[in-house]
From TrEMBL:
Coiled coil: none
Stretches for region Disordered: 1-31
PROSITE patterns referenced in this protein's UniProt entry, alphabetically: QOR_ZETA_CRYSTAL
Composition skew (Basic and acidic residues), residue ranges: 1-30
Gene3D superfamilies: Medium-chain alcohol dehydrogenases, catalytic domain (3.90.180.10), NAD(P)-binding Rossmann-like Domain (3.40.50.720)
The name this protein goes by in its record: Vesicle amine transport 1-like
Organism encoding this protein: Hucho hucho
Entry annotated with the keyword Oxidoreductase: yes
Entry superkingdom: Eukaryota
């Protein structure tokens, strides 16, 4: 199935809301308007780590760009599994609260600080931010800001950055994906999982094995070569098809899956851990789940690694950007991805769109929906009184 076909269903579900955001389907670059006091903005505030009661929509002082920063009027921002882990405090070195969550968004350049070059007022951009994306306005260093392709919508851009950049860097920068190789990706129905499937389709002869909850299989069955329920013994299922195992394992689960993934690697294969979603089992942090997941992680013997010719790696896009200063490397990847997008070889799938005030409801429902793929909502509060309606595993206005 072509990436454009994979995205068709999600696109159709959001057409009505897209029309409200971008009149006549065109790019919105002018007449940026914000209701209320121009010195204030709306934002989602996390008052402390814990359950949904720690989140609220409130007014906050309007930020202004400092030297080298870009001020962006947000049109869409992404909701990822990491955001849920942040809310619970299930991350290393959590920041102090209160804070505004969110790491990715898209919008229109509204102002620039001194010595800021490369952008103009009205430019359509997507950006990474070190928190603060769930707001009407963000200010961020220009190194994290990218001009969007002409045909890309704001919701697509918000669903694009974290997922496709992470998938590309793991496949090509870390694991060196080549023709004829095989890949096992967990949570194949999620944002990164779907990006992995699309990117693998750009390389001839790549076989994709995926695990996902059974209710997602119908929607993603055409994008994954071999799809398994995550609750079955996928190791045996993979070995029935490929007795030697796979070349690349992309694991966002951790726990017992670490040992299983290493066991499935062929010689010279690469196992990449990029998440630990098994640690999240409810609305709040569970120390039992943390302990269980940690206990189940197989202790890696480095001697065994070289004897078996296997590679184990970790990947964190946010650390790469905000702690390790690899902005230039990420920018190069973004440019390659934009080229693939313009060639219509990849296309982000937007699951649903929500108004800012409905963010709390969506994060609650997301537990029920098992994080069903590409999620974003827009901050422009158009017809906020409208109720949401159910649509094929997601929600839209």
């Amino acid at each position: 199935m072509k990436p454009t076909d994979m995205a068709k269903e999600g696109t159709e579900m959001t057409e009505e809301t897209e029309h409200m955001i971008e009149k006549n389907g065109a790019k919105e670059t002018e007449n940026v308007v914000s209701a209320g006091d121009p010195k204030e903005m709306r934002a989602v505030i996390l008052s402390g780590f814990g359950g949904l009661n720690k989140l609220r929509v409130t007014k906050k002082a309007m930020p202004e760009p400092q030297e080298g920063e870009v001020k962006i009027r947000v049109k869409a921002c992404g909701l990822n599994f990491l955001d849920l882990m942040v809310r619970q405090g299930n991350i290393d070195s959590p920041p102090k609260t209160p804070l505004v969550p969110g790491f990715e968004c898209s919008g229109i350049v509204e102002a620039m600080g001194e010595n800021t070059k490369g952008f103009e007022i009205g430019d359509r951009v997507m950006t990474f931010v070190n928190y603060n994306a769930w707001a009407e306005v963000v200010c961020t260093p220009l190194d994290y800001v990218y001009n969007m392709p002409d045909d890309m919508t704001f919701p697509e851009a918000a669903a694009f950055s974290m997922n496709f950049v992470a998938a590309y860097m793991m496949l090509f920068e870390v694991a060196n994906l080549r023709e004829g190789m095989s890949v096992l990706v967990h949570s194949a129905g999620g944002g990164v999982g779907q990006a992995v499937a699309q990117l693998c389709s750009t390389i001839p002869g790549v076989t994709v094995f995926g695990t996902a909850s059974s209710f997602k299989h119908e929607a993603i069955k055409d994008s994954v070569t071999h799809l398994f329920d995550r609750n079955v013994d996928y190791v045996q299922e993979v070995k029935k098809i490929s007795p030697e195992g796979v070349d690349i394992v992309l694991d966002c689960l951790s726990g017992e899956n670490t040992g299983k993934g290493l066991g499935l690697l062929r010689p010279l294969g690469t196992y990449i851990l990029y998440g630990s979603s098994n640690m999240v089992t409810g609305e709040t942090k569970s120390f039992f789940s943390l302990a269980k997941s940690w206990w189940q992680v197989e202790k890696v013997n480095p001697i065994k690694l070289y004897e078996e010719n296997k590679v184990i790696a970790g990947f964190s896009l946010l650390n790469l950007l905000f702690k390790q200063g690899r902005c230039g490397q990420v920018k190069t990847v973004v440019e390659k991805l934009f080229s693939l997008y313009n060639q219509k070889k990849i296309k982000p799938v937007v699951d649903s769109l929500w108004a800012l005030e409905e963010a709390l409801w969506w994060e609650s429902d997301r537990l029920t929906l098992h994080y069903s793929a590409w999620l974003s909502w827009f901050q422009k509060l158009i017809h906020p009184q409208r109720s949401a309606k159910s649509c094929q595993g997601g929600w839209h206005l």
